[in-house]
Every structure is written in structure tokens, then in C-alpha cells.
Design a protein that fits this description.
Length: 107
């Protein structure tokens, strides 16, 4: 692991960006709200949902202040992604289901 450090200007250090990100995730994904039944039973499902949210937020959602997506503003994309594109991309990364073997009989 490589340690990354810097010398930030104390006048510009703020937690507001992190707090705004946390609020956006809590409001955008039911899995992060308190006292809910929209939870993930597996950590893999939870990680996949967070990844899909991040892709949607950065590639498909037009932000009011930018008037484009963050990926377009950064030069990573030349168009607003559709949900179909996101689903197809995610589907290509999923491992294909293998044939299941026979069930073990209980004694």
C-alpha cells in the first residue's frame, strides 16, 4: 500500500463535500437509510449496488450546477449514459453462472 499525503491549505479544508456525498448516498439508496427493510444480505450485493449508484451518479445523472454529467465535465464521456448502457456494462462484468452439481442427500 502506498501512502499519499499532502500539504493542504487550512483555509480551504472542509468536510462539506464528504457530508454532501454521504447525504446523496443515503437519499439515493434505500440501503443506507436507518430502520429499513431494503438491505443486502450479501456484501457482494451491497458493493454492487454502491458501484451502480456511483456509475449512475457520474455518467447518467445531469447535475444542475454543471448542466452535464460529471464524467462529461471531466472528459471521460461524450454523452449521457442511458440506464440500458449501465445495465449492459454491469452484465458484461458479471461472471457467468456455472452448471450446478447434484445436491448432497442428507442422512
Amino acid at each position: 500500500m502506498k501512502t499519499v499525503s499532502g500539504d493542504p491549505d487550512p483555509k480551504h479544508v472542509s468536510t462539506s463535500y464528504v457530508e454532501r456525498h454521504n447525504l446523496t448516498m443515503r437519499m439515493g439508496m434505500r440501503r443506507f437509510t436507518r430502520l429499513t427493510n431494503g438491505f443486502s444480505k450479501k456484501i457482494q450485493n451491497h458493493a454492487a449496488m454502491v458501484a451502480i449508484h456511483a456509475v449512475y451518479y457520474n455518467f447518467a445523472r445531469i447535475h444542475k450546477t454543471l448542466r452535464i454529467t460529471p464524467s462529461m465535465a471531466a472528459g471521460l464521456s461524450d454523452h449521457v449514459w442511458s440506464l440500458e448502457e449501465i445495465v449492459m456494462m454491469a452484465d458484461n462484468y458479471m461472471p457467468k453462472a456455472a452448471k450446478r452439481g447434484p445436491y448432497k442427500k442428507r442422512a
